[in-house]
Every structure is written in C-alpha cells, then in structure tokens.
Amino acid sequence: MSGRHIVLSDAVRGHAAVLILGFSKDAGDGCGAWAKALRSDPALVGIRVFQAAMLEQAPGFVRGMIKNSMRKGLSPSEQDSFVILTQDEKQWRSYFTVTADKDPYVVVLDAAGKARWLDHGTATDLESQVRSVRP
Questions:
Q1: Digits of tens for pLDDT over the chain (135 positions)?
Q2: Strands 48-54 vs 82-85: parallel, antiparallel or unpaired
Q3: CA nearest 22: which of 47, 55, 53?
Q4: CA–CA separation, 95 vs 79, rounded Å?
C-alpha cells in the first residue's frame, strides 16, 4: 500500500507472521479490526502482521480509487505491511477454503512458513485462539 513492492513469501521467511486477507469490501473493516487487535496484543509482540486485500475481480480502472480509499485509514507503518493482490484469487480462495466473502481470513505462520492456525471470522471471536498458537 505504501508503494513498496512486497513479496509475501520473502517477507515472512524466517519470521513468525500473521496474514489477514479480505476478499471483499465488506471484509475490509473486519480485516482492520484484526490488524489492530493483533498489533496491540502484548502476547504477540514480535509477530509480523500483514494485511492483504484481493482486488483481482475489481476492474483495473477502479483499483486506484479503491487503493486510495483504503490508504486513507492507514498509518505509514501499516501501509508498509499492507499488500494488494491482483492475481491468483482462485488459489487464495482454495487455500483459505473461502465460504463467506464478508469475513476476514487469517493464517498464523511459523518461522518456517508452516501454517499453524487458519480460520475466518471476527477478531473478537477468534483472537484468543491466535494467541494460543503463538508460533
């Protein structure tokens, strides 16, 4: 989101991380709530938190407006860890077994890149589960 190119596999390699991904505009607020909760949780200090938005289905001429709208609510450091995805939506949906586009999808990765926990839903419903699988 900051304009810097991020390759997620490189960014998380060797570090525990959480990826929060939204597949629709409706999921955006939920993704933001997840990011805020995880970044402020003292039990998760040192865990990298990345937020991503899938825009493959958005027409190309609209993507800039969508990005600008999302950028307004993010601090510069949050922008550095926010990724816009514009391809491979089918694979991402398969990985997360997407059943509800309005939900945020969350995966906790250990330093080896192995998924330790994967689910979807609100931060208030699931944050304690994330804390319990600290990678």
A1: 888 888 888 888 899 999 999 999 999 999 999 999 999 888 888 899 999 999 999 999 999 999 999 998 888 889 999 999 999 999 999 999 999 999 999 999 999 989 999 999 888 766 666 666 655
A2: parallel
A3: 53
A4: 24
Rounded to whole angstroms, the maximal C-alpha distance in the chain is 42
Distance CA 124, CA 92 (A): 24
| CA angle centred on 117, ends 115 and 120, rounded to 5° | 120
Instruction: Tell me how far apart the alpha carbons of residues 71 and 75 are, in angstroms, rounded to a whole number.
Output: 8
> What is the Cα gyration radius of the chain?
14
Q: Count other C-beta atoms under 10 Å from residue 59's C-beta.
A: 8
pTM of the entire structure? 0.88
Domains of the chain: 8-132 (3.40.30.10)
